[in-house]
Design brief:
CATH architecture: Sandwich
Radius of gyration: 17 Å
Number of strands: 12
CATH class: Mainly Beta
Number of helices: 1
Order of helices and strands: HEEEEEEEEEEEE
Number of domains: 1
CATH topology: Jelly Rolls
Largest sheet: 4 strands, antiparallel
Strand content: 35-45%
Helix content: 10-25%
Strand order of the largest sheet: 3-11-6-9
Low-confidence stretches: none
Distance between the termini: 30 Å
Shape: globular
Length: about 140
């Protein structure tokens, strides 16, 4: 894991030191850095196995509620457009607006809903392993 941290540091240093020929320095904004989910639950250790990274762009139509589900692997995202409310089975609630980051709950039932009048668009990054689903719907067998 130390090798990855060093590589990330070097890449970040490289990006920050680059200059645009038109607008000056490249801007880097850290949206979030944490070892906990949005409700404060500690993230689990990474799973053993062949790594699998998945990146999804999800569009949730206005006035839509997602089914209860859980994620067996760590994932995080950024809401690009609209608003989104995420609610855990314990009624913990997170309200997101465009530009907000989220570090999702792992192995805890929850759902999201778009109560707004425009679609909510979110990019989500999953850090998993081969053979593990990224989402499990409540009531479905896998």
């Amino acid at each position: 894991m130390k090798k990855y941290s060093i590589a990330l540091y070097l890449f970040s240093t490289f990006i920050i030191s680059c200059k645009s020929k038109v607008n000056g320095k490249i801007k880097v904004i850290k949206l979030i850095e944490t070892s906990k989910s949005w409700n404060g639950t500690p993230l689990p250790k990474y799973l053993e196995g062949t790594p699998k990274v998945t990146i999804l762009k999800i569009t949730i139509p206005p006035k839509t509620e997602l089914k209860k589900h859980m994620h067996p692997e760590i994932n995080a995202g950024v809401l690009l457009k609209g608003e989104l409310t995420v609610i855990s089975e314990n009624k913990d609630t997170l309200h997101l607006k465009a530009g907000d980051p989220i570090v999702e709950l792992v192995n805890l039932w929850h759902y999201g809903k778009n109560e707004g009048d425009i679609p909510a668009e979110i990019i989500v990054f999953y850090a998993g392993i081969e053979g593990t689903p990224i989402t499990i719907l409540k009531g479905k067998d896998y």
